[in-house]
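>> received
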Amino acid sequence: MPSSNAYHPARPPDSPIDDSDSDLEIDIEELDPQTTPSAHQGRTYEPEQRAPRIALRNLRMGGLRRGAKRNGYGELGRSQDGNEEDAEALLRDGDTNEPRNSEGSAAGEDDAPLLSGSRQGSGGKRRRRSFASDSLRNLSLRLPSFMSGTTAADTGNDDEDHVKEEDDPSASRQVAVGSLQATRYPPNSVSNAKYTAWNFLPITLYNEFSFFFNMYFLLVALSQAIPALRIGYLTTYVAPLAFVLLITLGKEAYDDIDRRRRDNEANSEEYAVLRFDEPGRNFGSSRPNKKLKSSTQARKGSKRHLSSRDRLSDIQEEEEQVEGHGTQKSPSSYVTQISKKSRDLKVGDVLKLTKGQRVPADVVILKCLSNDPPVNRISEEVEPEVEALLLDHVDEVGQGSSTDSKKTVKGDQGALENGSTGETFIRTDQLDGETDWKLRLASPLSQSIATEELVCLRVTGGKPDRKVNEFAGTLELLPSRQEAADSTAHTENDDDHIKAAPLSIDNTAWANTVIASHATTLAVIIYTGPQTRSALSTSPSRSKTGLLEYEINSLTKILCFLTLAISIVLVALEGFSNTKGNVWYVKIMRFLVLFSTIVPISLRVNLDLGKSVYSWFIQRDPGMPGAVVRTSTIPEDLGRIEYLLSDKTGTLTQNEMEMKKIHVGTVSYANEAMDEVSAYIKQGFHVPPSADSLVNSILLTPSSSYTSAANIGATRTRREIGSRVRDVVLALALCHNVTPTTEEEDGKMINSYQASSPDEIAIVKWTESVGLRLSYRDRKGMALEAPDGRTVVKVRILDIFPFTSEGKRMGVVVQFYEKLHQGVPSLENGEVWFYQKGADTVMGSVVAANDWLDEETANMAREGLRTLVVGRKRLSTKEYQEFTAKYQDASLAINGREAGMQAIVSQYLEHNLELLGVTGVEDKLQKDVKPSLELLRNAGIKIWMLTGDKVETARCVAVSSKLVARGQYIHTVAKMRRKDVAQETIDFLRSKPDSCLLIDGESLNMLLTHFGTEFISVAVLLPAVVACRCSPTQKADVAKLIKEYTKKRVCCIGDGGNDVSMIQAADVGVGIVGKEGRQASLAADFSIEQFHHLTKLLVWHGRNSYKRSAKLAQFVIHRGLIIAVCQTMYSIALDFEPEGLYKDWLLVGYATVYTAAPVLSLVLDKDVDENLASLYPELYKELTSGRSLSYRTFFVWVFVSIYQGCLIQGLSQVLTEVNGPRMVAVSYTVLVLNELLMVAIEITTWHWMMVLSIVGTFLMYIGSIPFLGAYFDLKFLLSIGFLWRVVAIGAISLIPTYAGKLIQRTMKPPSYRKVQGI
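>> returned
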């Protein structure tokens, strides 16, 4: 097979490639017929496709190599400079940015055939295959091509000048680890902004002019450019419109700049990134030729004898002399640590992540390096041959080795020394809402190589998609960095160089997840920014418009029609053919311009200013610290909410579990009674101190019968209870998947735990609190300590049966040590017990017959506790051996493997268990969640809980939070796949409208797909709906469906990245600032810190905002309509001529200086105080009907405006003159005073600002009269005649209006007056 010359440097003449012997090939099976497959951490990966044949002259080394395993040959391939420890130290030391010289020594050029063609950047850190296993798998391959790639190519990390091809999001991608990518990918920046600099004006102007009255005023303003239609100054009509647009655009710009500022905070978060520099690029030339006998220098941590090292050095020296040039291969890179901001991260960057860090992009985990000290108390007594194996880094098989194939060999010395197994835990509640931690694994291929060699890896992944629970990819190890960076390097002709391993969801961590383990995690970025799973699951930001805006838009259409009607009627009364000076349609147009005040342009200004005031109130409310208004255009919608869609994790709950209750059959313990449990444990696990070391080394087992002096006089019943308590606590302390860890906080070492389930951590913490602490755990065993620090229980783990969502239980088979310093006991020398815990639904049939389990689990479930039933069973040696044999056979079956294995477990273990007890774990609720939900329900809001968590968890929280009332029927729908069942479910819910629906994501998808409208029509009538296992997209779809079907206002509240889509789809989105991130709060319209702040936001601020804006809108309409009626009366008196009554400043001043402040002061009005609003949430319920601003109230105000306008203008003309400055002075003065007094009549609760605005405006009007000589007769204003006319006309205008209001209030008092007792 030809060599791939594009990537292979020239060889010296005496290189083995040019040696004729290198063409001689031999079948390896003739030399080494035995094969032993190797295991790596219990997982397998795909081997390279073919392995090289071996030159004849190299075969003389075979015997030495196979024998070397017993003689310490594993040291041959190791670096002899201690560089690996330096690299690992770098990964644990974030304070240094100095480059580390990480030269690794390949084991001589002649070792290359043993390495299957892959370059060994850090010596023997990678495992070598046996000749036989390569042969059996791949037949034979010629030598020359595997010798290629000795020198790492200089790809140049800093070379940004070469042309990159654009990323195609629909295609899969190849990512070279730690190198510059050939394809340009999007930047890793988060953006919740709605606009860019380019589209801000087009989008905002389009949104503004999509409203009818803005377009109407634009046309009116443009009409003034036509001389025939001009009434007054052009600025009289253009300036108000420009002012309105300026205010609105300014608010939108301010809101968006604020979003960008907060996005910038998230994008500026610093992350540690590993930089891989080319060898010799910054540090001079590569390592010089190796001196003879150099390997006699002792390697740090080496346990090999010097003589064996000398022998191996001689072998290597001899090989190098045969090769000609004995230079060792330098490492593929030098590693330095740099800091990058989140937005500067790129695809291919290798992140160094530690506990508590948010993952900034979608990554594939390469290595997990444990930070824990190498404590090994359990497995230190392993068999000698296993320990010898663990000390060796190669898994080449000796002639007589039989155990090698069953044991795991860790390839990374640094990882081995630190106990790392390539595992880390992540928290995904910000992504999918699930509370359980997820176990993530580094691929064995990347975990086993040195950090310097990570640049030889290439990741192949699929196109970006939104499936957070799926991923399929490949990890490839190539001979050199250059080949890894070249996407064309992987061809059929050089498969012999490449090792490949599959990648799955278990090897990934998506953006917005959080590292939960103490281990240092190295991960390569594969998707950034908008291509991450969380971003693809998030709908783009949209501009939101309040319901009040649409209602006012409808009312302005009516006003516009009224304007057109009046204009046509006035021209018609004169006669279309009798028009003087202008044709009839020009007169109609002039009338339309004159009556344009009917559609008040100042309405938008007043409403926008009102919204700013409401936002100010919300953000400065001392009862809601930290509240932020991000979308200030929709505060009125807070008062119209009818559906609340809430997340669970972090929103209703704190995601903190606490063990609340334990029942042992006859006695239940909770709260203070836990002290009694502690006393029993202290007695049951107390070994009297003795001078005899044998006695002190004795460990306790379930059959131990130690009795403390304090328990001797106890009654038989008490002793029995003590025994049961001891047994159940021991079971809980052993039956789990929790690992104890130690971390440093404020200079103190603190013990903590990590596990996939917070429930298990809560239980193990509880066993520690009562006196039995899990002190150590690995895959082979556990140790438990008493409060005095003495190890009292030590077990060997024989089998673990992990929890699954189908099985709903987990079990463990353990063997108890009887002495502290005992080696691994044989099955005959220690008690073997099977412990199991699980949901009551599955454990009821597993445990022995009893009469209390169902009752107690039901009692705990009613309290909203998550119940677990605990049982145990002792196994004889024969039983366990028989089970193991059968279970092993079942695990090898090709068909029906899972079912067969479960059948064996059920047959031998899961029957007739001794029932030990029932535990109740509480998912701590957020502060005041129960009263908040009750108050919101009383306010007429239907509450749905949408979560990504499990069905059982969602059910418990729904009960504990009182979302579901005590005794209310919960109809559960799960795993529904048939349409007929879906139809039956809908029919059942229709017949039982008072039940709560609990549905999972799969069933919800079925119903929404095939019965969307029918399902929503039934579901919206239910008092509560709980949907679990929901994807972010499903949450958003539910919100949209409710909006579209009911046409009601929907509010969504959440705290995680998985809630962003739902929040943005809602009419009102509320985000809670979460512990792990602010994605939801950044994307939301309103941000709060606690769920219970929502009640105040809706019931107090929302109600006030809506009622104030409704009153404000009606007043502004009244203000514009009354002046239009005056204009109509004046035109009629002038023989239907379109002449302006109030021109220029009088027209502008009326809408601004003389009435604006008093009308705007209505935003300070309130009908009830805050306590009454919370005490009577039914007041909020009234608002949902929209009666505060309806067609009825609108036409009432139209009638009032017509009445007052006709009287004011008519009486002014009758009592003074039809046309002249005296009439204008009287009517204008009455008009201003009428508006000020109408505001005073409508105020419910006075505020000092209201008094100031009304009095101040009146004084301002009086003070400005001397400057209005162009419009008024100033001499007439000083006469008594002017005064009595103003008083008389004003009284006739106001008194009937006020009297009608008093009569209505007496006959049909509003609700707020009822609760006030007025």
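>> The two ends are 100 Å apart (CA to CA).
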